[in-house]
Amino acid sequence: MEKKVAKSSDWESSLGRPEPVCTACGAAFEPGSEFINQMFIVEGRPERRVYCLACHEQVTEEPFAFWRSKVPMPEAGKPRPLDLEFLAELFRRLHGDQVDPSHDEVRYIVTLLLIRKKVLVQEGNDEEGEGDAKCEIMLTRFAKEKEGPIYRTPVPLITAERMDVIRDDLGRIFNLQS
Length: 178
Ligand SMILES: [Zn+2]
Fold this sequence. Notes:
The chain contains five helices and six strands; from the N terminus they run αββαβααβββα. The chain is of the alpha+beta class. A hairpin with a 2-residue loop joins strand 1 and strand 2. The chain is elongated, with a radius of gyration of 18 Å. Zinc ion binds at residues 22, 24-25, 27, 51-52, 54-55.
């Protein structure tokens, strides 16, 4: 039998269901059960894989980030909570000591999303490099951390179409409707 592995293109359909399914065994998660989210950045695009706790113990590939979620109990009319905490954690990882240039687009769009959600505030702009290598830098800090560190985000050259693709990826992964 063919192994059931969700591809990133399947996310739209799998996330449209009331509860997600395990990437490895395909089991649907019961309301109230915990599962593990793993986030990878594949060719510059964010990709989420979810595992039941049993399958997660068997997985050896190291994700860029991971977090636990709980399937909400069915309560009519209650919107799913935003995963802003996890998006903030991803932001911190993307601004870690070893900044990977292939993450520039995701890093920039995560930053914009968190500004829009008022998790980050913009503190201004800076520039780095000279001539053709000149790059604009966005300066932000966490809104709750008035004396907190300033994060520097290089502004990549990116088309509107590519912006939309990555923003939609993140919106699905982090449940950021609205
Ligand atoms: Zn499983």
